[in-house]
Amino acid sequence: MESQSAQNGYGSDFASLDLNLDCDDAVPCIFCDEIFNVMEDEQPILHHLSTKHKFVIGNVEQVADLRQYILYWGKLRCLDLRDYCVIFNTNSEPGAKEMSETFYLLCNKLPEDNRLRMTLRQIKLKYLVEQKEKERNDRNFSRKCIYCSQIIVGGMTNCFHHLTFQHGFSLGNPDNIVFGAKLLDILQEKLLRIQCLFCEKTFKTHQLLRTHMRKQQHRSLNPKNKIYDKFYLLNYLRVKTRLLQHMKLHHMFDFQDIMKKFSFYEQVKIVNFIRSCMAECRCLKCQLVFASPELLQDHLSQSKHCVLPDQRVWNLSRYHIPVVENDGLLCQLEDGELNDAEATSYSLSENDVTAKSECYVCGKKFIRTYSLEEHRVIANHINLADAHLYEDNRWLQPVLEEDGLLQSLREAGDSDDEDPRHPDSSCHGVVFSERIIVPPSILSDETLRLELLENMDQHFSLSSTAFN
Which ranges carry the C2H2-type domain (predicted)? Predict the structure, then answer.
């Protein structure tokens, strides 16, 4: 049935694929009957192919589903590799001491292989999107926390938030995580083995493990362990390179080269500025507005206006707000992956709205308030900052106009009375120049309104008597 589906959807060339992406069954080697579970670890089969069969899969990291890929190319067992592979010899240079060996390289230079990779990518992305939607909408999901005995209900996202805010362990943005239940199972198993999730060192007791992870701040996953890659959606999105090549080739806009000059926050503004211009059919440089996207593209091409204008045009706070929801390009800024909790030393302008997302303990800045709060919990930056961070005279300037809290501050010995030895009971709780907003409901109630007016008359009468 699955093979028939493959033929109907993708042609008879892919009839050998089962297209059951939920399946993680082991598969045989392309050239022999040895079995490998490529879904758990792809390295054994790659090593086997290279050492025993002198066969190499080029750019294997770009293969969306290696299991389906191996199943498809199983037909090579009965075919001549010279018709499908690039042949190269090792140690072929004059004077080489090692024996020369012939290897076969299968890569996307072969049209059939390229088509297979593109098809698998489309199928995989569709499957991942559907899987993520199921997980996001499953409000009945619940499981025991991997750290404590509490049962977390209300969906998988709540499990990740619980880990972050109750235990200071961050797995990243929950919206970027797929197959979350399986990820939590792996982490649970590691903790049962008394293994640190970051450095993966094993301890004798759970108490030693907890102490180690707390003191060493090992409150995240090991970034070098590739087993976690499949649980993060960004690792499946390989559109960035093609997108950047398209901009450079068709629009003469070298995105990577241009972005080298700017900080992360400026890069965000640039992307959103360009997105905004394209959505409004507005020229980047001269800011002229056109009636259609086609007319805009003609203008950009003929006038060579596909360039950044003066910073005063795009370096505005409003361009910190994404124009495209879940913009993949924004998510891949800075070495291909944006970590919201990663801080930057970039100094923001006084009028920049994101300046508020700053940790008052260490001074690091964040693009989102959620990321700031996550950082404060993980780094334990929830106490009053060191004095040197707030002794600067610039903090004498109010952030909020007519801040009532500032106006109610007092030093020891302060008094609103002319003679502190004889306090004026009519002046208790005075807040200087604080703006008072009276709810309309009070004024519409005749009884309350009369009582309010009577209280005000008594107050002014007492104040006048004290003054005289």
Answer: 194-223, 357-386
